[in-house]
Amino acid sequence: MSYQSETPFDNIESSHHYVALLAEAIAEAKADVEEQMTAAVVDEADRRKEALQLVCFKLNKLGTHIAESRRILNDLRMLRRLLLDERVQKTGTM
């Protein structure tokens, strides 16, 4: 019987994949906000434009955090592989 993952965070690989999907969603949201901002400039809706600028700022900030999370997860994957390879080599030589 194989183990079925219940959440996207059951292992490092699935967490990395989930964070990558979040990064894609953020990029899509930023593109949408930029389009809306262009429309707000054309409509001369200054208050809406300012609100969309704040949304864009927050999305950029979130994107930075997600990018850092991806790097951390990648480091953890690499470290786990290193540790598992060392463990296999130690048990193989004993």
Q: Any overview of this molecule?
A:
The protein is mainly α and 94 residues long. The protein has one domain. It contains 2 helices and no strands. It has helices spanning 12-42, 46-93. Helix 1 packs antiparallel against helix 2. The protein starts with 11 loop residues before the first helix and ends with a helix.
Features:
94 residues, 2 helices, 84% helix, 0% strand
Write the layout of secondary structure elements.
Elements (H helix, E strand, L loop, with lengths): L11 H31 L3 H48 L1
Helix pairs in contact: 1-2
Unreliable spans:
none
Quickly give the structural class: mainly alpha
Please state the overall shape, judged from the principal axes of the Cα atoms.
rod-shaped
Question: Whole-Å distance between the termini?
Answer: 31 Å
Mean pLDDT, nearest integer? 88
The percent range for helix content is: over 70%
Q: What is the makeup of the main sheet?
A: none
